[in-house]
């Protein structure tokens, strides 16, 4: 199988689905002539034409609204929000419209669309190009929220998202675009939405994470293994709905849980996972559930030292693992 980075895997998924299904089209800011700010849609305009690769104005509510309308008329839109930081103007369209069409129509209508958004810090993006916004969407029934950590999953999950009958928010960490490489099959395949993946089996601590933090957590787990600490790393992959079976099953095996995510601690997805474990696996715990997240600050700074202070890394995760193991 060819070795691809994540941006190449995403481009491959879009190409394969557009070639296989004429209902699939992409829209967003600079997705056509430029090929996207990160080049995820590079070459698609030449291959499929301007009717299926649509450059949009800087109007995120319009991008989401057009995608919703197209999906209701039988198409399969894949909308790109240039940065997750810019998704806020589209929240009304996503939460109040896309997520609720199946309910409000008593199941007569579905809204099959994908909204892709690069998220995460560590690329000197400062205030408006560094945010992790997944918690804005993981509390809304009717949506699925996905965040892959490998090129293989990026392609398989994106194809599954495009084929899904309901709206999917698809977050892609910017540091992984060209920082992660792996084998990716040619042709279409899918990975199941709503299912986590055991990236590393272990017996002493369950570590739940996603996106870039999955890669950092694996490195941290290998570091502490030398000291006899055996960590099981669960890559959630789908953030809503959570894979409850994988989470609870792992905690019942290890007795200790650490949740790692890049978003701020307060209001982040880790709180929901903590509650799930406390309510349904409390008797299995040998220690309090621990969360490791970015600090509760207003924004990510442009300054190198301040950005590094904000960001989690394998060393910080390894320290959190050691502290939990010593409890």
UniProtKB/TrEMBL annotation:
Transmembrane segments: none annotated. Keywords: Oxidoreductase, Thiamine pyrophosphate. Residues 4-179 form the Transketolase-like pyrimidine-binding domain. CDD domains: TPP_PYR_E1-PDHc-beta_like. GO terms for molecular function: oxidoreductase activity. NCBIfam families: PRK09212.1. This is 2-oxoisovalerate dehydrogenase. It comes from Kouleothrix aurantiaca. The lineage of its organism: Bacteria, Bacillati, Chloroflexota, Chloroflexia, Chloroflexales.
């Amino acid at each position: 199988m060819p070795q691809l980075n994540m941006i190449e895997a995403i481009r491959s998924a879009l190409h394969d689905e557009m070639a296989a299904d004429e209902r699939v089209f992409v829209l967003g800011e600079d997705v056509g002539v430029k090929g996207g700010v990160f080049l995820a849609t590079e070459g698609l305009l030449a291959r499929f034409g301007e009717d299926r690769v649509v450059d949009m104005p800087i109007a995120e509510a319009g991008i989401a609204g057009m995608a919703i309308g197209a999906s209701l008329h039988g198409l399969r839109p894949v909308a790109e929000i240039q940065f997750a930081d810019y998704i806020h103007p589209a929240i009304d369209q996503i939460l109040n419209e896309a997520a609720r069409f199946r309910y409000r129509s008593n199941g007569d209508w579905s809204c099959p669309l994908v909204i892709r958004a690069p998220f995460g810090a560590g690329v000197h993006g400062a205030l408006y190009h560094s945010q992790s916004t997944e918690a804005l969407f993981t509390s809304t029934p009717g949506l699925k929220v996905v965040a892959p950590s490998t090129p293989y999953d990026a392609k398989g999950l994106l194809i599954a998202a495009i084929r899904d009958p309901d709206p999917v928010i698809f977050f892609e960490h910017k540091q992984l675009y060209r920082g992660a490489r792996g084998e990716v099959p040619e042709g279409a395949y899918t990975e199941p939405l709503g299912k986590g993946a055991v990236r590393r089996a272990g017996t002493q601590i369950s570590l739940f994470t996603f996106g870039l933090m999955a890669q950092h957590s694996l490195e941290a787990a290998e570091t502490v293994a030398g000291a006899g600490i055996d960590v099981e790393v669960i890559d959630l992959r789908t953030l809503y709905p959570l894979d409850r079976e994988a989470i609870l099953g792992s905690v019942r095996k290890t007795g200790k849980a650490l949740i790692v995510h890049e978003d701020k601690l307060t209001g982040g997805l880790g709180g929901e996972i903590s509650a799930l474990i406390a309510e349904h696996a409390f008797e299995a715990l040998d220690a309090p559930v621990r969360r490791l997240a970015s600090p509760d600050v207003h924004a990510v700074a442009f300054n190198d030292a301040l950005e590094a202070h904000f960001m989690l890394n394998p060393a910080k995760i390894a320290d959190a693992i050691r502290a939990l193991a010593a409890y």
